[in-house]
UniProtKB/TrEMBL annotation:
InterPro entries in the cross-refs: Amino_oxidase, FAD/NAD-bd_sf, Retinol_saturase
PROSITE patterns named among the record's database cross-references: PROKAR_LIPOPROTEIN (PS51257)
Protein name (database record): Flavin containing amine oxidoreductase
A Pfam family it matches: Amino_oxidase
Domain Amine oxidase: 18-382
Superkingdom of the source species: Bacteria
Length: 509
């Protein structure tokens, strides 16, 4: 598709991750002309999938919550017109997540608060009061976030220090002295790359509540969200172009962006611009001098969440039975300890899932294992770039590094599933560099800017910038994850649409 020469759009959106696509859909459906520019050969950001040995692998989204009828993400997907076009597999009611420890003990999270409480009280009969208190605290916390309840008015949680400054680890520790229960309740903290000293309880609460409200896998991969959203955007006249890397901006006399400039010199003009890429990278593209020094310094010095090493096994045919739940494996007792890992005994904590592929129902075609990895481990290859759009080489040393890390992961997973090695047909992996190159942040961070209960205002980033017609969206603005990014897209678009009316459309969908 070629753009019309000299055309000015209402909106140019940089980056086709979920935040960019959701903004594009909202604005296009309200009658605005929209252009989405994506630097890669595939749209979707963390929603991307890839295929190896005829097996489909997700890069970032392995399951999703809040999908029970009427729940917030269910309603958002209905509003986007994609719910009935997507294929979901509900995870087991009695265990959608299993928290597993080195001693072999397993603790299952059941779907819904009733099932969750029943399971937990069964494991910890003397801790009933703590478990009920914990569940009530999650519900009470979630009530403080209006948009997560499909409301536009209500308490401003950002001004409530009792919400923003409550630390997740400290709160859970305050309700029970039972160390194992503490670790079970926080056992899926890989969902937000939890850091003991930093992670606020509200992050834990919003994410736990989401999965307790309907946990599902995508059948045949999560890229269907991006595919269906892009169809909706185009139906409303919006445009999406791939392999269009934005590297700079031009300005008018009023200090507004007049055009964005691509790597190949091409220019796109719009009245408004929305950046769905990391705020620090956005500053680089749009010019450091356009932002106040205090803002630049704050954004550039914010701590990003740790990156990941993602390993995919493809299995021999009918070799490994499909698991309709996920496993969070901890080889150390402290479930928060995997972030500061020891390289010799790595990986200490990791996530295991088997994607559901429609043609194989009883047996798994593949397995995905996601574990923490610091970007420093791949720093020696940081000057390299390797994507489909920019196919550079990292060299033999990098491949050897990956093979060594893959072997460490296989040895660990053999402790959980003895004999699994013989069932593996092929192994593929992605490092922090892979995530950096495809997602567009500087260190391969999985969930962007870390929220910090010790200084919450420092990690709050406004959707509006000092440049009058440049706005931000994506996982750094509100929260990460499918639900968090969708909410942040609505927050960004509230500057251009009637928020009461748009949320009513979501509720009525």
């Amino acid at each position: 598709m070629q753009k019309e020469p000299g055309k000015e759009y209402d909106f140019v959106i940089i980056g086709s991750g979920l935040g960019g696509l959701a903004c594009a859909y909202i604005l296009a459906s309200e009658g605005y002309s929209v252009m989405v520019l994506e630097k890669n050969h595939q749209i979707g950001g963390h929603l991307q999938v890839y295929s190896r040995d005829k097996a489909i692998f997700d890069t970032g989204v392995h399951y999703v919550g809040s999908m029970n009828k009427g729940e917030n993400l269910y309603q958002f997907f209905k509003y986007f017109g994609i719910l009935d076009k997507m294929k979901f597999k509900r995870l087991d009611d009695d265990k959608f997540d299993v928290i597993r420890f080195d001693d072999g003990f397993e603790y299952a999270y059941g779907q819904g608060y009733e099932e969750f409480q029943k399971n937990m009280i069964g494991y910890f009969p003397d801790e009933k009061e703590a478990i009920l208190t914990y569940c009530k605290k999650i519900k009470d916390t979630c009530k403080k976030f209006p948009l997560y309840n499909l409301e536009v008015s209500g308490e401003n949680y950002q001004m409530d220090s009792s919400i923003m400054e409550l630390n997740a680890y400290e709160y859970i520790a305050s309700i029970t002295k039972n160390e194992r229960l503490r670790n079970v309740l926080a056992g899926s903290n890989q969902l937000y790359a939890g850091v003991k000293e930093m992670t606020p309880f509200y992050v834990h609460a919003l994410i736990m509540n989401s999965y307790l409200s309907g946990a599902y896998k995508f059948i045949d991969g999560g890229s269907q969200i991006a595919i269906q959203l892009s169809k909706g955007i185009r139906n409303f006249g919006g445009e999406i172009l791939k392999r269009k890397k934005v590297v700079a901006a031009e300005y008018n006399e009023a200090g507004e962006v007049s055009a964005v400039v691509l790597e190949n010199g091409e220019k796109f003009r719009a009245k408004q611009y929305i950046s769905n890429i990391h705020p620090a990278v956005t500053i680089d593209i749009f010019g450091e001098h356009r932002f106040l020094q205090v803002y630049r310094n704050r954004i550039k010095n914010l701590k990003n969440s740790i990156s990941t090493f993602l390993v995919h096994f493809s299995f021999h045919e009918n070799a490994f039975e499909y698991l309709n739940y996920n496993i969070y494996q901890h080889h150390i007792e402290d479930v928060w300890g995997g972030v500061e890992y020891d390289k010799e005994t790595w990986p200490q904590t990791y996530f295991i899932c088997t994607p559901f592929i429609s043609k194989h129902k009883k047996y798994a075609e593949s397995m995905s294992i996601m574990t923490y990895m610091d970007a420093d481990e791949t720093a020696r290859w940081s000057e390299t770039m390797h994507t489909v759009a920019e196919p550079g080489k990292r060299g033999e040393g990098y491949e050897e590094f990956k093979k060594q890390k893959e072997e460490q992961v296989i040895r660990r997973v053999e402790e959980v599933f003895p004999g699994i090695r013989e069932k593996i047909k092929a192994v593929h992996s992605a490092s922090p560099l892979t995530f950096r190159d495809y997602i567009g942040n500087k260190d391969g961070s999985l969930y962007g800017v870390m929220k910090n209960s010790a200084s919450p205002t420092r990690t709050q980033i406004n959707t509006k910038t000092r440049i009058p017609n440049l706005h931000l969206t994506g996982q750094n603005i509100s929260m990460h994850g499918i639900l968090g990014v969708t909410v942040s897209a609505f927050v960004t678009c509230f500057a251009f649409v009637d928020k009461e009316k748009i949320i009513q459309k979501v509720k009525n969908a």
